[in-house]
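re: that chain from earlier
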Amino acid sequence: MTTTKLRASSILSLAVAGIWAAYSPVVQAQSLVTLYESARAFDATYLSARLQYDANLARADQARASVLPTAGLTAAATRTDLNISPPPSTALNRAYSTETATLSASQPLYRPGNWATYEQGKKQVELARSQLDTAEQDLIVRTSQAYFDVLASQDSLTFVKAQKAAVAEQLASAQRNFEVGTATITDSREAQARYDLVIAQEIAAENDLRVKKLALNQLVGKAETQPLGLSAPQVLPPVIPADVNAWVLQSETIHPGIRLAQSNFDIAKLEVDKAEAGHKPTLDLTASYGGTRNPNGTFTVAAASSNTSVTVGLSFNVPLFAGFATQNRIRETLSLSDKARTDLEGARRTVALSTRTAFFGLVSGQGQVKALEAAELSSQSALDANKLGYQVGVRINIDVLNSQSQLFQTKRDLARARYDVLVGGLRLRQASGTLKPEDLQAINSLLLK
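^ sequence. v structure.
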């Protein structure tokens, strides 16, 4: 009875799968590079960083205005109605208009604070570039991780289904042997228990795949993503250079986190210069051109009149006392400069530690792949031996079930380890600051065509 139910359930599952495949839309599989380009155009975190970069560039350009000339135009028109009546016989009533216009300009000649602001603007551009590079590298790793999470979940589901088929076959064999009297009921119950366990694992694997696909879909902005799998046989790329110190050394100059801390330190030093400029004089070149016109005359002259004036000069200002505000501002900026220097050193140490950790993690992952490849062969041999022993009566059913479970678990671990090595290579480049979108091409070449 149980065997009949099991076979009916299998036939029903196959029928449902066939109907689903017939009516489901065909989804074209996408490569890692393709999905990364989609994520680059859709991911909110990266787009936010891109817009912040554009805003920082505009803010940096504003600092240049402090060393450029300024000009302004002012104009005014007034009308005066004058009524003087001491005695009535000498009453004076007069109305006249006055029109004025002035064009003025100023060019800083010596303003140390303004020049420090201008230099800070250029450092802000470098800082903005570092922030955008950090966001781009983070997007590469997040996309790759989500991509291989889906592949790992697909593999896990595939292996669970294969294990379910193998356990179902073992269950049917145990039931046949029990019916003919060559095996005990224990074999059937053990196989049934293992089959029920695999069913639970299959449900969990299906849900995990659904969640992983949703995460990838949200990241790249596509409704149905289907990542391309790895081609077989898989030859994972080696670690080049193979020396961890070489990775650490190159990170000291190009890592965006270190460049960001260096820009903050440079900006802090320029802030000290701005504070010290509070004690220094300033010198500006000024010029103005103005005119006044009275079309109806003035109070004293009845005829129309006009005049113009041109002024060119130097404006010199010497600060004498500001209530100790300048001295305290200098003390504040010096402390902030020391803080920025400490942050820079901390960034270097953090990057060096992260690079070493990522390097040794990648080397360890490659060793695990080799070990699991050997374990897969050994597990397959053990399963074959236990199946043969079960047929000749020297092994029991639980031995075969355990061997099957070990083999499929090893296959899942091996697939996950391969994906971890590929993502680990990207994480190593991210830790050293050398990660670029072009690095995805090497992984892309390992995918199915």
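Confidence is low (pLDDT under 50) at residues 1-26.
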